[in-house]
Design a protein that fits this description.
alpha+beta; Rossmann fold; D-amino Acid Aminotransferase, Chain A, domain 1; five-stranded parallel β-sheet; 33% helix; globular; metal ion binding; ligase; Biotin_carboxylation_dom
Length: 459
């Protein structure tokens, strides 16, 4: 492997390019018309235009991305996260073209990307799953009353092809179930081209815990310290940290063992994340889903373990990953926490606020802070893509120290031209409930009015 095409943009494309450069690999960037002058294009050794600004006509155009690889003689493709990263079809196309796919095989992506199939795979691997139903197809004639009673209320109606909170609806009472199923099925069909849904028990005081895994494709699987991604808004992560606060060693070890079993059963290759929901009232935990890609929050794991997950992906493909450990632990009592800096307005329902970054000053990275950003002062936050400007990941010798370092880093952010969520995130960091790990996945949504009213730190 000598040359890697990065099928992505923004900060993750820059991140992969940097990892390739550290290993002496050449890189190829792809870009849309809107990104012709983007940082990832400047950083790469070569760059190829793949279409107009809309993602479906550029970054999601499988044929155009593959043609870029052919034109430049790239022999591997790294998908980053988002876009085509969890497309089994694209992974298969890459491999059929004789290129190296820097991720799990297409079959694994297909199984774990289907929530119903993923539940089945988890059950077969002896991993506990939430009470729920088999997939329900549209016009399937299911007895919703019976299925709802068996699952228990409140429950979630979830699209099997959904993800990141998309294609999901909470139902409190039996009377509301039929309408919710019909609405989610219709939404899923429009959004994903697949209206299949299933019912799943909803836990009121849930925490979101995930286990990073890395497999060699031959059955050997490494597990890493857990990440806590509980603080969310509408199922979108806001803060991610490792280790998880106030979690017993028994639960940590059990989750890691379950994640390893599932990954081994699939003979998992490359980096992936097994996600769990933890019932903080009862102490029970259940499989949620598996993400078959590198994640936004992978830097948190890297900071507490001293590893480079992207470099590990590359070294595995190069046949150089001879030092894959079975378990990676937290170094020297380290704690790390990440915040996503987004161009969005908390006071206006977090609507994206695209525009030109007339001023962009971020704190300098050092041993206690990673700053990942794919934009520069003068660049535009495009309405065509995600509104994330970048991410800041802080670490310290304790949770309190890591939180303080992140808060100081956010305080040093200076952005003009767009509204950001920096002040809102600082407000969350200062909450007593967060300090005491007394939050749950619905905490922000349940307390949003109060949080916005008390937000006084300027963005």
């Amino acid at each position: 492997m000598r040359k890697v095409l990065i099928a992505n943009r923004g900060e993750i494309a820059c991140r992969v390019i940097a990892a390739c450069r550290s290993l002496g690999l050449k890189t190829v960037a792809v870009y849309s018309e809107a990104d012709a002058a983007a940082l990832h294009v400047e950083m790469a050794d070569e760059a190829v235009a793949v279409g107009p600004a809309p993602a479906r006509k550029s970054y999601l155009d499988k044929a155009a991305v593959l043609e870029a690889a052919r034109q430049t003689g790239a022999d591997a493709v790294h998908p980053g996260y988002g876009f085509l990263s969890e497309s089994a079809e694209f992974a298969r196309m890459v491999e059929e073209a004789g290129l190296i796919w820097l991720g799990p095989d297409a079959g694994t992506i297909a199984v774990m990307g289907d929530k119903g199939a993923a539940r089945t795979a988890a059950i077969e691997a002896g991993v506990p799953v939430l009470p729920g139903t088999a997939p329900l197809v549209k016009e399937g004639g299911a007895d919703l009353d019976a299925l709802g009673a068996e699952t228990g209320f409140p429950l979630l109606v979830k699209a099997t092809a959904g993800g990141g909170g998309i294609g999901m609806r909470r139902v409190e009472t039996p009377e509301a179930l039929a309408d919710a199923v019909a609405n989610v099925q219709a939404h899923a069909e429009r959004t994903f081209g697949d209206g299949t849904v299933y019912l799943e028990r909803f836990i009121r005081r849930a925490r979101h815990i995930e286990i990073q895994v890395f497999g060699d494709g031959e059955g050997r699987v490494a597990v890493f310290p857990e990440r806590d991604c509980t603080l969310q808004r509408r199922y979108q992560k806001i803060l991610e940290e490792s280790p998880a606060p106030d979690l017993s060693e028994e639960v940590r070890d059990a989750m890691k063992a379950a994640a390893r079993r599932l990954a081994q059963a699939r003979r998992y290759r490359s980096a992936g994340t097994v996600e769990f929901v933890y019932d903080s009232e009862k102490g029970d935990w259940f499989f949620l889903e598996m993400n078959t890609r590198i994640q936004v929050e992978h830097r948190v794991t890297e900071m507490v373990t001293g590893t480079d997950l992207v470099a590990m992906q590359l070294r595995l493909a190069m046949g150089q990953l001879d030092d894959l450990a079975e378990d990676y632990g937290v170094l020297d009592g380290r704690w790390a926490i990440e915040a996503r800096l987004c161009a969005e307005d908390p006071q206006k329902k977090f609507l994206p606020r695209p525009g030109t970054l007339e001023r962009l000053e971020l704190p300098a990275a050092d041993a206690t802070l990673v700053v990942d950003c794919g934009l520069r002062q003068g660049d535009a936050v495009s309405p065509h893509y995600d509104s994330m400007i970048g991410k800041l990941v802080a670490c310290g010798p304790s949770r309190e120290a890591a939180i303080a370092r992140l808060d100081a880093a956010l305080a040093a952010v200076r952005v003009e031209g767009v509204v950001t969520n920096a002040g809102f995130v600082r407000r969350l960091l200062g909450l007593q409930a967060f300090a005491e790990a007394e939050v749950h996945t619905q905490f922000v949504d349940a307390n949003l009015a109060e949080l916005l009213a008390e937000e006084t730190t300027p963005a």
